[in-house]
Amino acid sequence: MSTAQQHKVGIIMGSSSDLDVMKKAADALTQFGIESEIAVVSAHRTPEAMVDYAKSAAGKGLRVIIAGAGGAAHLPGMVASLTTLPVIGVPIKSSNSIDGWDSVLSILQMPNGVPVATVALNGAKNAGILAAEIIGAFDEEVAARLSVYKEELKQKVKEMNEGLE
Amino acid sequence: MSTAQQHKVGIIMGSSSDLDVMKKAADALTQFGIESEIAVVSAHRTPEAMVDYAKSAAGKGLRVIIAGAGGAAHLPGMVASLTTLPVIGVPIKSSNSIDGWDSVLSILQMPNGVPVATVALNGAKNAGILAAEIIGAFDEEVAARLSVYKEELKQKVKEMNEGLE
Amino acid sequence: MSTAQQHKVGIIMGSSSDLDVMKKAADALTQFGIESEIAVVSAHRTPEAMVDYAKSAAGKGLRVIIAGAGGAAHLPGMVASLTTLPVIGVPIKSSNSIDGWDSVLSILQMPNGVPVATVALNGAKNAGILAAEIIGAFDEEVAARLSVYKEELKQKVKEMNEGLE
Amino acid sequence: MSTAQQHKVGIIMGSSSDLDVMKKAADALTQFGIESEIAVVSAHRTPEAMVDYAKSAAGKGLRVIIAGAGGAAHLPGMVASLTTLPVIGVPIKSSNSIDGWDSVLSILQMPNGVPVATVALNGAKNAGILAAEIIGAFDEEVAARLSVYKEELKQKVKEMNEGLE
Amino acid sequence: MSTAQQHKVGIIMGSSSDLDVMKKAADALTQFGIESEIAVVSAHRTPEAMVDYAKSAAGKGLRVIIAGAGGAAHLPGMVASLTTLPVIGVPIKSSNSIDGWDSVLSILQMPNGVPVATVALNGAKNAGILAAEIIGAFDEEVAARLSVYKEELKQKVKEMNEGLE
Amino acid sequence: MSTAQQHKVGIIMGSSSDLDVMKKAADALTQFGIESEIAVVSAHRTPEAMVDYAKSAAGKGLRVIIAGAGGAAHLPGMVASLTTLPVIGVPIKSSNSIDGWDSVLSILQMPNGVPVATVALNGAKNAGILAAEIIGAFDEEVAARLSVYKEELKQKVKEMNEGLE
Amino acid sequence: MSTAQQHKVGIIMGSSSDLDVMKKAADALTQFGIESEIAVVSAHRTPEAMVDYAKSAAGKGLRVIIAGAGGAAHLPGMVASLTTLPVIGVPIKSSNSIDGWDSVLSILQMPNGVPVATVALNGAKNAGILAAEIIGAFDEEVAARLSVYKEELKQKVKEMNEGLE
Amino acid sequence: MSTAQQHKVGIIMGSSSDLDVMKKAADALTQFGIESEIAVVSAHRTPEAMVDYAKSAAGKGLRVIIAGAGGAAHLPGMVASLTTLPVIGVPIKSSNSIDGWDSVLSILQMPNGVPVATVALNGAKNAGILAAEIIGAFDEEVAARLSVYKEELKQKVKEMNEGLE
Q: Which of E106, F124, G101, G106 has the least C-beta neighbours within 10 A?
């Protein structure tokens, strides 16, 4: 029988300076009872380590890879080229970024054959939820937690309305 | 035992004028032996039908929903708000679009809590492949076909190089 | 005989964090003697409540709906799809917005058949004035107050010039 | 008793070269039984005529003004500064436009005090529908026609789905 | 014989909040011995006063008009439509501006027949220098001061280089 | 006594491929009875010739220089750095331009001290009119012709309106 | 003694569909007597082949690598991460590109430590010339040819001017 | 025998206010044992000095010129037009810049015949490394230091991963 504990998500980023943004992906996964592992893997500084990471990801039981990067953000797309696992890309608005457009377009506009599932700028939390949805499509326990989460979102809006009065 | 035939992907679009772009998603899924169903569901012209579609999607066995839309493209995000399934958004460059920026940003920049897995402008083929990767993370048969596909991509580059000489 | 008191404007926003911006719409309406009601209605967190709000708006006597949202801002367009009332959209520059372009384009670029009357980024005050102009086209009392307001704008410029000297 | 025939909408544009785009506003109004008059009024070539047009608009019975312009598009905002009527602005993508951004921003980003209800690039049809919605908020006959129109939009999507099969 | 004192430049802006930026134009003119007068003239709040200002400018001896405005910046272009004098437009980056693009495009992209001499975002100092260059093309005294100014620019670079060592 | 014949405007462009755009500046000047001379002067291919042109311009009687260039358009700004004459810059949308943004920003965003009077993308006609306005500020004959021209613009709008009926 | 024949430049591109653009780099190098070799190397379809190409480039005598790619263009940056040779990146405006912004930003905005020498959109000819300049900095023969080439550029402008007359 | 000491790189910038950014290029070169000289050379304030600098650069033994500038950034391209040496351009995000787009496009989009090797916004460190790579292509000592540097980059990522645990 399938359980959330059987699934694991890899979270990688180009630099430890991205950790503040990217740990929100791990937090979201934890909230849905899904294990994750986090690592710094740089497309530009450790290209061979990136190749190794991507090629071994499926074999070590990862279901989804979440990759965050800023500027000319090549990590998500390169990892996607090296694995058949779904890769979620998180554009990060780094210093010297041109308003985030660079990382958004570097991740989103992948050529035919090698998709990256791109989320909003700095949207690591949503990357975690999307990974949970992917797992939830095959795991009823996770799907049920996602339904509960959606109810909580509604509940918060209800509380906001009470706060307005 | 799990087989590709057990999985089904829903493909929806705001207008039949988007069919030329979106059928590439269906073609890609067929290539990986995954069934899909295609429908016109408009966020702005048939909002109630959209709610019904999204809320019944998981129950009727869909694993992933692919939604394409142009301009102020609300279909992917609204469907994502109404289901726990992963939703892949395809920005479409329609006439009167402002260079495609409108559909890209309307789909990508979803708020925390409701992710959409966005692919490139007019990237319906990649949406199909991404759906296959999601299924392949839980179905070895599909994963194997994705590996074969990656080999074919390499082979094409090899042939291009032979053609250069 | 028609009076301003007979008219009411609905003001909605995706989150109570938008209240600081959106209450300027209510303030403007109050200035013209027009009643308004304010609520948090989220397209993505409370989609069914949004459908209910939009479908009941005309019946409960609203003349105009003002909807503010940031990022991939679907609230104004979705409400417009569900009512025949005029809907005024206020793009809000939220954190992680890509300079406000995302909310502007998500609200402005609506497809044929479902218009949203879009105002400037964070332009909630103008949304309130526009709602007053819509009511003023059918209510002489409100139109007269708008004429007074235009005189006050002139007066302020006159005072600015006196301040320069 | 109020009837649609009592209302009239003014449609203006900066040049007769904009007529192909702007007549769609007139067509939409005709569809809802609302009378319109169309004229060339240029902010930059006939500024005094523009002042006269705007100042006399309410007095001659117009309920709404629809103004279309391209490039540095000043007509909608200037007319809005000279009348208390609601003004709908239609950005037009003219030749030598910078992808339409110039007209969109020139119309949308009005300062506090002088709103323009902006619709999508080349969105004259939606401008006509928005004017009908404004009138429909005070005229049940027009509101009823708008409801019928919304049903027709749904019907077209239904036919599109039948065409897919 | 022509002297700099015979020439006068009008400096106008849409609001006294633009004064900090625009007074740099006056300072530059003073530096070249050219008289200027400064006033708040709003295209949107005082449209008739703007018409009067523009139509009387040449008659009261102005040689050049410098007009600064932010957002949907209509002042420079409208004034240009109402006078045969050269009009210099200064785009101002106001709060709620979309990064200054709105004012830049609203001023720059004027239609054929009605030019505005646009300078850089917040470039009021350069507007003053440009007005001096226009006058200097017909007044040798001003031209000579401009030559001195260009030498001073060179001198400052020389001093910077000495500071590097 | 001053007459239009006494004034001359220099028109330069980076390549003869820009001639189709730039000759409209010469045509406009001819219309106002102002002489012009046209030459290819390339900032990047003939930098020394550009320096010579700019430094000798005032001496040979030019009142204004109009410079058109595309892409990374350095000609207008460099000429402006080398003369005290007013320089009008015409951004040209060349092939491989990024939608014209490159030439617009390369010409407009000049640093303090060295202004360029920038007109709209491909706006060579307006460059010619602006040069005429500059001359007209000091030459009543040219000013009178500009007034006539403005009347003709009005007349054309009147004819457009007759054509609508 | 050093001669141009001793140097070789590698030219790579993501697909043979980029050949029409990229062969201009080879043509430019041939013009300066520099040998080049051209190959299809795809970051996303043949990532391992790309790693091999980049790591062996210096060893087989290449002095410079020119890499062209469109969309989310990762080839230049990834090759730069794997070699100490200078890498010149050519952004290519492919179909479905968002006006070329995606490839420009994906190549230009590299993080600290891994530069790419980026040239203009579709600027393969300039990439070839830049490679020649790099070699010419260490090879007088090539430098001399570059000086001749600069003279030819001047000569062409001279001929353009003769053609104007 | 060639040694790093034989090579020298010129670093120039438009103003001493750019020194904080540009000295990172000098620091990077020092790290690789390459000498550099730094100067303020302004395209717009000292155009003749710029011509002299560029024309004498090769003769005084410079191998590469690094030029940084903001806004309408003409320095890199103009220097490139006056020398056969490779020129590296550093776009600088100055105050009143339009988000850096102006300097990026002014430097990158050079016409055919006159390339500039453009690096990322404020990317002076990478400009220094790129200059080292250019020299390293002809100097084994520098190439060896670049290899060591690449190992250090990997080492830092390894340390980041240890820091995560």
A: G101
